[in-house]
Design a protein that fits this description.
The protein is α+β, with helices and mostly antiparallel strands and about 210 residues long. It contains ten helices and six strands, in the order ααααααβββαβββααα. Strands 1, 2, 3, 4, 5 and 6 form a six-stranded antiparallel beta sheet that branches.
Length: about 210
């Protein structure tokens, strides 16, 4: 029963992602060139291009950010997700999915236990919150003790995961925290780390490049 419900929610999520990608493709507001430089950092974008990754995993990571984390000025919700919420053709499930994504920041998770074919138990390295994410594909590649940068959101009593395209050894945790903590301190934010990351998802583009160096 649980597996069927999870697959149903994942199908809803796929339909939402497809709608989001069409919005991005049809937008006359988004400047892809400038947004790529914003996400990766201009100098680091050159490094990504040299490695030939702009069309591969790097493109998936960029689209994940653009769909879920790009804000225009000081809006309450990311641009694309807000546009989706304004779509009157959304089903109630699709709307619930979009609202769940709006609440979910990209952050760093430590894999603490894997159940092959089902999902994994993962822990947020900043607030230590631990949840079980239902994702068969993730369970096949995830390794206990490894880190992943991902978004986790709750729908229908289940946690789903998005954006977990790369994994890093757990001993990278100190370096990851230092990189993000540095930006957090620079911002002089009075918000908690998760709230800060919700508005600063672009940091993960630069973080990912640094971890590849």
């Amino acid at each position: 029963m649980a597996a069927a419900l999870v697959e149903e929610w994942k199908a809803v999520d796929s339909s939402v992602i497809n709608k989001a990608m069409r919005l991005i493709e049809d937008s006359n507001v988004l400047d892809t060139k400038l947004l790529l430089e914003h996400y990766w950092g201009e100098k680091r974008l050159d490094s990504v291009r040299e490695k030939g990754e702009v069309e591969g995993v790097a493109e998936l990571e960029f689209n994940e950010w653009l769909m879920n984390d790009y804000y225009l000025k000081f809006e309450d919700a990311p641009y694309i997700l807000a546009k989706l919420l304004a779509d009157e053709t959304l089903t109630s499930q699709q709307r619930s999915l979009v609202e769940a994504r709006i609440k979910a920041p990209m952050t760093v998770w430590l894999v603490t236990h894997v159940v092959k074919g089902k999902g994994a138990l993962i822990r947020n390295i900043f607030d230590q919150n631990e949840v079980f994410v239902y994702d068969r594909l993730f369970s096949e590649s995830a390794q206990t003790g490894y880190l992943t940068c991902a978004r986790v959101f709750n729908v229908g009593s289940y946690y789903l995961i998005s954006g977990a395209y790369r994994a890093y050894p757990g001993n990278c945790s100190k370096e990851v925290r230092e990189i993000i903590d540095e930006e957090y301190i620079k911002s002089k934010s009075s918000k908690d780390m998760n709230t800060f990351l919700r508005r600063h998802g672009y940091l993960f583009g630069r973080l990912l490049i640094k971890l590849q160096e």
